[in-house]
Amino acid sequence: MDITYTLALSFAVLGSVLSFLGIALRLLDKERRQQRAEQLLCLAVIAMFWHVFIYLLIFTGHIRLFPELYNKGIPLYYLIAPCAYYYTLFTLYPSAKISKYWVMHLLPFAFGVIDVIPYALASREKQVALLETVVVDLQMGFRHSYGFIDQKWHYLVKFMLAFVYLMAQWRLFYLFDPRESRIGAGARYTVLTFSIMYSLHLLLQSGLIVTILVNEMQGSFILKNTGQLVWVSLFFLLFSIWMFVSAAFHPFVVKRRIRIFKSNI
């Protein structure tokens, strides 16, 4: 078996496991699961996890066994960027309020839900038939007609929206003044690390998407090129490590802060 194939698959699987554990630890922590920032982070990572999981099924061909799962993540993927932005906002500015126009952020999600309806209503036989071609030629994931719009637009719109949200996300750091905030250095370091990892992951993933959409003739080859996919999987793994470590060591950090606080009383 090709070593790059093994690495790409291993990184993706290990990253998925660590992401799942990171989410589980956050949800099991009563204090953290009540925080808006942590809830949004979990939602964003669930969407990322689902994206990787579905791609693994496609890449290995096992998606043909579960045709009902295909393209169901499209609405979720639109939520990653706004969740990342608001996670940063509520971490740096815990008392910040959501705009009364917050529902506008859900419009792409609603748009995605509507567009998956044609595939969801298709018979299982037609779904399997489509997936038989997708597994062989991944470009069919862009070209199939099971949607109200050309499927390329999902990738283009998602990329453009993610870029806008990311710029707004980094603007929060630019405007943040630690002298006027009670946020500890640990929280700032955590959200900064998240933003860097997310930016690099998005940059690498977006580069592949743009290349695929611009050069359709080589799109399927690029998606099957494990040498390039291994980097995407590696960045996802690094992000998942952060997700797990930041959750696993949080109780120890909190206890240490309590001890320091008591010793200063």
Show the helix and strand layout.
Elements: H1 3-28, H2 30-33, H3 36-60, H4 74-77, H5 80-92, H6 107-115, H7 117-121, H8 124-136, H9 140-143, H10 152-175, H11 185-214, H12 219-224, H13 226-248, H14 250-263
Helix pairs in contact: 1-3, 1-13, 3-5, 5-10, 5-11, 10-11, 11-13
Summarize this entry quickly:
Keywords: Membrane, Transmembrane, Transmembrane helix. The chain is mostly helical and 265 residues long.
As residue ranges, the low-confidence spans are: 251-265
Going by helix content, strand content and strand pairing, the class is mainly alpha
Order of helices and strands: HHHHHHHHHHHHHH
Counted beta strands? 0
Whole-number total of structural domains = 1
Radius of gyration: 20 Å
CATH topology annotation: Rhopdopsin 7-helix transmembrane proteins
Question: Which architecture would the CATH scheme give at its second level?
Answer: Up-down Bundle
CATH superfamily: Rhodopsin 7-helix transmembrane proteins
Largest sheet, in brief, is: none
**Count of DSSP H/I helices:** 14
Please state roughly what percent of the residues sit in beta strands, choosing from under 5%, 5-15%, 15-25%, 25-35%, 35-45% or over 45%: under 5%
Q: Ends: how far apart?
A: 62 Å
- Overall pLDDT confidence: 83
CATH class designation: Mainly Alpha
